[in-house]
Amino acid sequence: MSGSVEKDTLEHVDHAGSSSSDIREAGFDEVYEKKLIHKVDWRLLPMLGALYSVALIDRINMSNAAVAGMDKDLELVGTNRYSIALLIFFIPYFIFELPSNILLRKVGAAALLSTLAVSWGVVMIGMGFLKDWRLLVLCRAILGFFEAGFFPGAVYIVSSWYVRYEVQKRLAGFYLISVMVSGFSAILAYGLMQMHGIGGLAGWRWIFIVEGIITVVLGFMAYFVVIDFPDKILTKRNGNFLTANDIELLKARIDHDRDDSVADEMTWAKLGFHLRNWKLWVFALMFMCSAAPVYAFGYFLPQVLRASLCTPYLFACCAAFGMAALADKMHKRGPIIVIQNLLVIFGLLLTTYAKGTGLRYFGIFIGLTGGQGNIPAVLSYQSNNIRMSSKRSVGSALQVGFGAIGGIYASTVFRDKDKPGYMPGMWATIATQIFTMTAVAVMTWYFKSENKKQKQGKVLEDHPEFTYTL
Prior knowledge:
77% of the residues lie in helices and 0% in strands. It is mostly helical.
């Protein structure tokens, strides 16, 4: 089976390599290339960022609604019901990410991602009318089902359009813009809470209803804006901003970088082959550990400090984007990840043990910078070190799926009975950062060793010129 998969891959390499050579000889210049890339940036990243912004807001507004009175109205106080409602989201979120990514190429990016967004928006609207905590749990599970396909799909598309040392800035761009916008969710929620009594509804209900309506509107807009994969875009309605020659040039850049602009067909044999690749599981575990502090800060620190987190989010996103730009410029991934792990640890320790509110707040600034920065960093670490569309589809779904496990982990280690310091949760989160640093050290040793063998003639990732990014 594996031999058949490798044969298909090598046949694709031979075909794609000739295409790249032909286009490079056609006389396109670097200035025109940059203009094309910026065209793709503006069509791809803002809408993905807008949709993921509402996804994050829809996901974390549970804490805002709880503070606004949902915990009392739905009888969540003094029980583990709130944690159950948080945790249940991640079960379907994990299960359905890979099937959704496989479906993405068949259905089309605009059709699938917009349908998912409209669907989870409708669920959010429905959550504004709940009377029973059990229905809240059910809605959270349905929300996890619909949101499952969006983020891995977005990562899959972005990593398919750009060369390896452009991708971290782009992933950071749409992700960190989303985080920055969601950092204002507390302010938005506060404003919506002032609608308390309108229509006979409590303020926390309006949080869900209005944010759900915004999501539905953006979902409909996405159908007309989101673009498809490079090898499919000319057959789609949303690809008319590029010419056929433009597409061939963009595909040639990708082939020159890693030789996979044209997707190889996903089969059951390839799916099994990719799932047996141990590196994908290491990247997935690293992403799980990177997601844990993000969820920890997002879910529970508003309850620790009872303060707005918009300013730390703004600082964290700007600093993390700077780290992403540095990583692309240096052509490095591992060292940046480790630096950001250390920032998370330092920030958590300050937040946990500092006596004054100012120092604890400063710890949030530092911890959020490292935590948010490592989401695109770890995604890029995997993206830079794999080839072929089928593996990218499986890898991004598996990686983001393990991020859901990180959310489950954060939901369970931060327990109500540990208030107000959440000491066990803080140390459990620090442990995830130590694991990630260890994994980076192991992968760096392995990649260096393999790159040395490549110079001696070993073929990596089924391509004779491919080398791993450290």
